[in-house]
Amino acid sequence: MTTAHRPTFDPARGKEALRGPAYHQRLLPAYTTLKHRQPGQGGEADTSRDLRAELLKAEAAHFAKKNGNLVEEDEPETSAAQKRTIEEATSDESKHEEDPEVKRRRLILEEARDVDADSDPEASSDDSEDDDDDDEEDEQAELMRELEKIKRERAEQKAKEEAERTAKEEEEREFKIARGNPLLNPNDFNVKRRWDDDVVFKNQARGADDKKKKEFVNDLLRSDFHKRFMSKYVR
């Protein structure tokens, strides 16, 4: 008989271990500091930024680096003075970098624009009206030529259809004349007869090959075997 169900009078005991107080992880202090908005998150750090000034400053630094000039970081100036200095620097850079060929073309275009503005508007309007009249006359002549072409094509198509219809009617009339005389066409009045019209007995073999096919019926009383058995032994 087993004794597994009986209590133990001297249970096993663990070794004495030096353990301190145990705490769960979620009982420990957390979130002891507050988060502050960083630059770019729409807080107080973004209110004092001048994005346009920063962009102009970055562009000036880029052009200076491209030309080989060293950029020294000066003390922060006031916003208005800084903007003015950066704009002057960018304008100077653009002036120095402008190609003389491009400048010459720009001057020529400006002179041509001024000449066009000073020209007589009435003369230009008269020329434009004359050009419009010529264009309208050309379009009218083109439309008339197209109309004549369409009329000619329709007339040719109609004449062709009329000729075909006349030829067909003539052919039908000749056929009726040729086949309408019974003296010239005696074969048309012959009566077609079968070869067995004069035979005394007809259809002698009808039904000889008609054998009833076997059918499966899921009923013993209506099966072929039962019918043959009943007709043979029970009358």
Secondary structure tally, helices? 5
Helix fraction bin? 40-55%
Oligomer: single chain
**How many strand elements?**
0
Based on secondary structure, the structural category is mainly alpha
For the record, give the distance between the C-alpha atoms at the N and C termini, rounded to a whole number: 86 Å
Q: How is the main sheet built? A: none
% residues in beta strands: under 5%
Taken from the alpha-carbon principal axes, the silhouette is: flat
Low-confidence stretches: none
Mean pLDDT: 76
The count of domains is 1
Gyration radius (Cα, Å) is 59 Å
Series of secondary-structure elements, N-terminal to C-terminal: HHHHH
Task: Give descriptors for this structure.
235 residues; mainly alpha; 5 helices; flat; Pre-mRNA-splicing factor Cwf15/Cwc15
